[in-house]
Design goal:
alpha/beta
Amino acid sequence: MKVGFIGLGTMGAYMAANLSKYLESSNHGLVVHDVRREAAEPFLAKGAAWAASPRAVAEACDVVFLSLPGPKEVEAVATADGDGLIGGLKAGGAVFDLSTNAPSMVRKIAAQFAEKGCHFLDAPVSGGPSGARSGRLAIWVGGDKASFDEYKVLLDAFADQARYIGAIGAGSVAKLVHNCAGYAIQTALAEVFTMGVKGGVEPLALWEAVRTGAVGRSRAFDRLVDQFLPSKYEPPAFALKLALKDMTLATDLGRELGVPMRLSNLAYADMVEAMSRGWEAQDSRSAMKLQIERAGVEIAVDPERIKAALERDPPAAGDPKRS
C-alpha cells in the first residue's frame, strides 16, 4: 500500500512522522508533497518518495491525508484543474482531510469526488502540536464508513482517539463546536480572572484556589498556565490568525443554520480586535490581553512559581502538559 501525505507544517510534520513509523514497520510506502520542498527533506532522507504535485501523490497512492491551513487551500489541492488530487485518484481511492474546514466545503468536494468514484472524508484533529508529536490526538471523521473502517489502522498510527461520527461534514461540525467552545470559555476566563485580580487576589493564589473548587477539579483552569498567567504569548502554541479562521468558520456556520451564538461572537470580536493590534503571530490566547487591559490589572506570574504550584498539585492524568 502507498500512502500520501500533503501538508508538512507543524501539525502535518508530526502526524506524518508518526504515520511513517507505522508504514516502515508494515512494509508500506509514504509519498509526500508540500509547497515547500524543504519541509519534506526529513521524510525523503528516511526513504519517503517525493511527488511534485497533489495529482502526482494521488496517482501513486491508495489513500491520501491532507493537513492544510484552511478551506481554500484544501479546495485547491483537492480539485484544481490539472494538478489537483481529483485528476489522479483511482476509482475507490480515499482522501482524509485532517484540516479544520467548513462543512459546506467538504460536502462540495466530496460530491465532486463521488462523481469520480472516489471518497473524500473530513477528519479534523484536536490536540495541538504537542498532541500531534506524542500521538495523543482526537480525530473526528465524517464520510464513507467503509473507507474509515479500511484505513482506521492508519489513523491509529498517529492518533489515539479516531472515531467515525457520521456523514460527510459531521467531523467538521464537531471540530467547530469544540474549538468555538474553547475560545468562548477563554473569553469568560479572562473576564472572571481579571475581576478576581482587581478584587485584590494575587493571580497565582487565585488560580490555585479555584483549581480546588468543583469546576477546578475538572481541570478547566489548567490551560491558563502556559500563556495567560506568565503573560507569555510567543512563540505560539497555536497562532491567533489560525484560531480566528476556526472561529470565523464556527460563527459563519451558526449564521448559516440560524443559531444565535452571542457569547461566541463576543469571543470572535475580541480575536478580531487582537488581530488589529498586530498580534496575529502570537498565541491564540493573546486575545485575553484585551480583558487585562480593560480591567486595568497586571497578570504576569513568575514561571518558576507556576512550576512549583503544578508540582504541589499536578495536572490530571492525560492532560497534554504531561506528554
